[in-house]
Write a structure and sequence with these properties.
Helix content is 20%, strand content 39%. By secondary structure, the chain is an alpha+beta fold. It has a single domain (7-157), classed as STM4215-like (2-Layer Sandwich). Strands 1, 2, 3, 4, 5, 6 and 7 form a seven-stranded mixed sheet that branches. A hairpin with a 2-residue loop joins β4 and β5. The longest helix is centred in the first third of the chain and has 16 residues, at 7-22. The model has no long low-confidence stretch (mean pLDDT 91).
């Protein structure tokens, strides 16, 4: 029995990847909660320019053993499907959809090998099986809009 994937380290790398990928579009990224500078300046709803942001939260991670490796060894390699919720927030419903599209295009570019606490994992694919609707968040007045997508990162131990 081997230890499960280091999900916290994977999440840190996913967040860092998205920070870099969305920087040119000036979309902020937060892990678990909205980023400090996201939303309205000084927290005053409806005053100033809303800073769009993405919040990344962990979801369910499922072990997914793979078949024999490419060299034909009988040993199965350990694999995981790691779920996330990506919530995009903007001042208008159409803009929430726009930044969600940017985020979707970015996350599917995550590829290659990742070092998670000395273990090398290979990103096999990124799935976005559920595109969320644009919905108002009425916790503020005026409301802002959110789109929440389900994202799965599929990895195998290299």
């Amino acid at each position: 029995m081997t230890a499960p994937i280091e999900r916290s380290l994977l999440t840190r790398q996913v967040v860092t990847f998205m920070v870099d990928a969305l920087a040119s579009d000036q979309i902020l990224v937060g892990r678990g909660t909205a980023p400090q500078a996201g939303g309205w300046p000084q927290g005053q709803p409806g005053k100033g320019d809303f800073k769009e942001y993405l919040t990344i939260k962990t979801g369910v991670a499922t072990q997914n053993p793979t078949g024999p490796d490419t060299l034909g060894h009988r040993k199965n390699r350990q694999g995981w499907a790691v779920g996330y919720l990506f919530t995009y927030s903007a001042v208008k419903d159409s803009r929430a959809d726009d930044i969600a599209d940017l985020g979707r295009k970015a996350i599917v570019q995550l590829d290659g090998n990742l070092d998670l606490a000395g273990e090398i994992w290979t990103v096999n694919r990124i799935d976005i099986p559920r595109l969320g609707p644009s919905t108002p968040n009425r916790s503020t007045s005026p409301p802002f809009w959110e789109v929440t997508d389900g994202v799965s990162v599929w990895l195998t131990r290299a």
